[in-house]
Amino acid sequence: MKLSTLTLLLAVAAGGAHASEESNLQVQNVECRGNHSTSCDFIRSHLNLSAGMPLSEVELRNAQLRLSSLRNFEAVDVRLEKGAQRNAVVVVIEVTEASPITTESLVGLSSRLDATRSVIAGRVAHQNLFGAGKTLDLAAVAATPLAGEPYDEQYQVHLRYADPNLFGSDSYFAVARASWINASRRDIYGNFSDFEGAEIDLRVGRRFGDFSYFTLSATFRPNAQWVTGEWDFGGPTDFDVTVRDRQHGYGLIYGWNSEDDLYFPTQGFSFHIGAGWDFGSGSPANRSHVQFRRTWQLDDSLLTVKLGGSPSPEYRTSFDESQLLSISYGRSLQASEGVKRGRWYIEPGVGTAGYTSGDARIYEVGVKAGVRLDTTAFGIVDLYLIATQDPQR
What's this model's pTM, rounded to 2 decimal places? Predict the structure, then answer.
């Protein structure tokens, strides 16, 4: 059912009342249908309405958007039925459940600032533990150099548990992750970074408003081996080699996410601003302080502006390789046997990568092209090529 039909349903539920009386409608109950393995409490937690509250058409639209963006469901329909009394309505949320076992894979070829590598990543997850929408996933990433220096090599393994309703709360969520990371990088100017060690990360967040959330994180890296060497702005004598032995880190994020899909967005936007040890080029995680993604539907095509990489809103996450700032043009692919949906895209972008020995900023300009598929056999599959150069060289 399209959301535009909600207005008609509101009038019918009110017994033919004029649209101006819409604010007098009251929620009698919220019912779930089609949820054979998913608890109704998890579904209802995405609707900020309960029995006895005045009906809000805006909130009905927002609830359908929140639920439709989850991989837990193939389809979501929010509708109204007449209640037992005049001006009373029953909110019905009908879902078509997806498989609780999901997979995601990525295969890419990356040549950035003369460092060429292959990238292979995979994730397998159970996204409906205990029938409550909780997630347990195992992910691995291997970025292997295909030539000598310069190079950017990474091997990572992550085990992650996400609870979207911490202690049964409709507002609080939490993520716990244990990782092993081995990452080594050298560029043509001599800048380098070597990191190897385990990482334990705990995040607790709170949703509020329509699509906003705060997240507080604590990270522990026991006995990690991390050395960096970087040219600083100031001339050829300012090359700093640092052995970083800090084991604890904290972070704070404010975010907003109104996208209709994490992998195939067609509307809405995602935004976050973060502060703490894990943000910026001088951190092990190297996360962007600011992340933004907005998608517009243009007839048969899509235009996306992205800053700081792809989003990982609230307790969800995905694989991605992109430049600091990019503009993506994409078109949807027709569904076929074995492919439920797909999209090809071309994504030119720009970025920065530190300094040279001559005090010059290292710039990065390039293009990414790829195809993303939602398959019946292999889940989300992302295939891409990315190539960048420093325009000053």
Answer: 0.89
Question: How far from 29 is each of 50, 75, 92, 170, CA to CA, in Å?
Answer: 7, 22, 8, 17
Enumerate the domain spans of the chain. 3-97, 101-389
Which pLDDT tens digit goes with each residue over 264-310?
A: 999 999 999 999 887 766 677 777 889 999 999 998 999 999 999 88
Which residue in 54, 60, 69, 49 sits closest to 8, CA to CA?
60
CATH number of 101-389: 2.40.160
145 Cβ contact list (under 8 Å, min separation 6): 115, 116, 117, 151, 152, 153
The Cβ-side half-sphere exposure at 264, using a 13 Å CA radius, reads 19
Q: Are 97 and 76 spatial neighbours (Cβ–Cβ below 8 Å)? A: no
For 282, other C-beta atoms within 10 Å of its C-beta total 12
Residue 53 DSSP code: S
Angle between helix 6-13 and 57-68 (nearest 10): 130
Kindly compute the dihedral angle of the four CA atoms of residues 277, 281, 285, 290, in this order, to the nearest 10 degrees. 80
Topology classification of domain 3-97: Ubiquitin-like (UB roll) (3.10.20)
Q: How far is CA 68 from the centre of its chain?
A: 14
- Per-residue pLDDT, averaged over 171-188, amounts to 96
**56-68 pLDDT, tens per residue?**
999 999 999 999 9
CB 125 within 8 A of CB 102: yes
pLDDT tens digits, 87-103 = 999 999 999 999 999 99
Mean pLDDT of 142-156: 94
- What pLDDT does 14 receive? 46
